[in-house]
Write a structure and sequence with these properties.
The mean pLDDT is about 90. By secondary structure, the chain is an alpha+beta fold.
Length: about 160
Amino acid sequence: MTDMHVRPARASDPQDRAFLRAMAPRLETGMPPWIPPGALAAAVERSVLDALDARREGEAILVAADAQGRRLGFVYATTTRGGLSDEPLGYVSEFAVAADAEGRGVARALLDTAERWRRDRGMAAMMLRVFCANTHARAVYEHLGYEPDVLQLRKRL
């Protein structure tokens, strides 16, 4: 999609804020049954809007938009430490593409921009988490070069 651009989200832009709020429920795809419906979306909305307002060093919220300014997706990228190696890594905290924008290169554009942003700051890798049952997102990530790393298991007591 050539008429798309990726830019930092703007805390002062009510349309950016509304878009980020509206995208939060998309992050519940494949969510395990023990998480109450709506709980994750509410937590994500709070954390993304908090990050947008705080503008902390080492964090970025990027929005993809088309030539008419219609928002297509977003990524909230930050930094974490890498497991056993303890190396600083780029981390995709939240990521979503609007349903009607899927298959148009939005995911690639957002992740390429976030990866370049982290690479320019000396990070050697980018990581993310995805629900096991979200097979569509897992396929997209693997298509874009992400590989499975650690499988986390959970048992209700």
